[in-house]
């Protein structure tokens, strides 16, 4: 090979599927009902910046009998993205929709202890890092429970359209790692993606089991990232809500 | 299932360094090809692995995910991973995804090899 200093010159039109460079997330258009905390001004993070063990989890469902292309299924998925989420996990895309560079705000409730109701609020969001006809990848900000990417995709396998959610993430800080390992947060997150795929399948009248694969990509934790706890969205959301009376009195 | 549209070969540069030449498209279906090339480089005894993106035609978000898993695998084997030949667009993608903080990017093969040691 050569010492090329001027690589590929032809621009692939698919490059527009990528978000423009984003050093800090900017929320410009707040959808009605969204809390909008812990996102504006935060840096997007990859699986490399988190604290805990890195997992790749893949959830997929076969849409047997659906006579649509993967791109057509993805269009339905994108158009109904918030609707397919469980009720305790509210997604608020901006008016522009799920487009590269857009921010999706999330107001979720998580159970404080395994087996208890989802009552602990977490306000956060994600950046749409990549979106084409069959794939959407979102990237989390600092403070989000996970540091990394979630990819939603559709493709064909043996003549059947497959819908898939795949996460490549580490828990962002030591508290999230503790909850993941010992308090059931990991299983709770799994339930969310299974719910999304079951809802999507039911939208097409399909009843199929969701297949799950989990790979521990990196079993070690990154102690250098323990400081991420400063931005913990769950802690900050609780403090924000506890301080509501003070803010009201100051008005 | 879609087929991979990529070819990768591991070239031994010296006893410590191998170069993986990438030609084509890196997406989810490139996993086996990438890991085979990595295994080949490792079996050549490489402590430094240089990724050559000069002939990359396209990479999607799943492709970036594959690079993360490759990086973790290399780190666990105490191997360094560097890259060269990225277009301006993919340099921006490395910045967006913050992969550039862990995989250093060089403008030429000579620079990448010199930095890899």
Description:
- The complex is a heterodimer of chains A (about 250) and B (about 120).
- By secondary structure, chain A is of the alpha+beta class.
- Chain A is built from five helices and nine strands, in the order E-E-H-E-E-E-E-E-E-H-H-E-H-H.
- Chain A has a single domain, classed as Alpha-D-Glucose-1,6-Bisphosphate, Chain A, domain 4 (2-Layer Sandwich), CATH 3.30.530.
- Chain A is about 20% helix and about 30% strand.
- Chain A is globular, with a radius of gyration of 19 Å.
- In chain A, about 45% of the residues are buried.
- Chain B has about 120 residues and is α/β, with parallel strands linked by helices.
- Chain B is about 40% helix and about 30% strand.
- Chain B has four helices and five strands.
- Chain B has a five-stranded mixed beta sheet.
- The longest helix of chain B has 16 residues.
- Chain B is globular.
- The mean pLDDT of chain B is about 95.
- The chains are: A alpha+beta (about 250), B alpha/beta (about 120).
- At the A-B interface, strand 1, strand 6 and strand 7 of A face strand 3, helix 2 and helix 3 of B.
Strand and helix layout:
The complex is a heterodimer of chains A (251) and B (117).
Chain A: E1 44-45, E2 54-63, H1 70-79, E3 89-93, E4 103-110, E5 120-131, E6 135-141, E7 146-157, E8 160-171, H2 174-182, H3 185-203, E9 211-218, H4 233-242, H5 244-250
Antiparallel strand pairs in A: 1-6, 2-8, 2-9, 3-4, 4-5, 5-6, 6-7, 7-8
Chain B: E1 6-12, E2 17-26, H1 31-43, E3 48-59, H2 61-76, E4 80-84, H3 88-96, E5 104-106, H4 109-116
Parallel strand pairs in B: 2-3, 3-4, 4-5
Antiparallel strand pairs in B: 1-2
């Amino acid at each position: 090979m050569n010492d090329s200093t001027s690589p590929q010159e032809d621009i692939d039109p698919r490059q527009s599927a990528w978000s423009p460079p984003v050093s800090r997330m900017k929320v410009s258009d707040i959808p009605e009902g969204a809390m909008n905390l812990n996102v504006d001004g935060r840096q997007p993070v990859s699986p490399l910046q988190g604290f805990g063990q890195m997992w790749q989890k893949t959830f997929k469902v076969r849409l047997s009998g659906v006579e649509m292309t993967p791109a057509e299924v993805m269009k339905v998925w994108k158009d109904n993205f918030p609707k397919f989420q469980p009720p305790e996990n509210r997604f608020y895309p901006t008016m522009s929709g799920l487009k590269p560079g857009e921010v999706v705000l999330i107001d979720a409730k998580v159970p404080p202890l395994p087996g208890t109701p989802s009552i602990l609020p977490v306000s956060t969001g994600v950046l749409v890092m990549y979106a084409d006809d069959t794939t959407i990848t979102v990237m989390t900000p600092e403070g989000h429970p996970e540091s990394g990417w979630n990819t939603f995709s559709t493709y064909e396998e043996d003549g059947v359209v497959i819908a898939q959610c795949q996460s490549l993430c580490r828990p962002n800080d030591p508290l999230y790692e503790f909850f993941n390992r010992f308090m059931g947060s990991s299983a709770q997150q799994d339930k969310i993606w299974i719910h999304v795929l079951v809802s999507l399948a039911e939208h097409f009248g399909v009843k199929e089991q969701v297949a799950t694969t989990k790979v521990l990509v990196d079993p070690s934790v990154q102690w250098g990232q323990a400081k991420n706890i400063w931005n913990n969205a769950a802690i900050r959301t609780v403090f924000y809500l506890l301080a509501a009376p003070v803010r009201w009195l100051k008005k | 299932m879609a087929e991979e549209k990529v070819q990768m070969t591991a070239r031994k540069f010296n006893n410590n360094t191998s170069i993986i030449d990438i030609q084509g498209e890196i997406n989810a279906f490139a996993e086996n090809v990438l890991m085979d090339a990595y295994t080949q480089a490792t079996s050549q005894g490489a402590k430094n692995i240089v990724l050559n993106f000069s002939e990359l035609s396209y990479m999607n978000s799943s492709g970036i995910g594959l690079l993360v898993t490759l990086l973790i695998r290399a780190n666990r084997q105490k191997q360094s991973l560097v890259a060269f030949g990225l277009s301006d667009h993919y340099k921006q993608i490395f910045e967006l995804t913050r992969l550039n903080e862990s995989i250093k990017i060089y403008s030429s093969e000579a620079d990448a090899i010199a930095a890899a040691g």
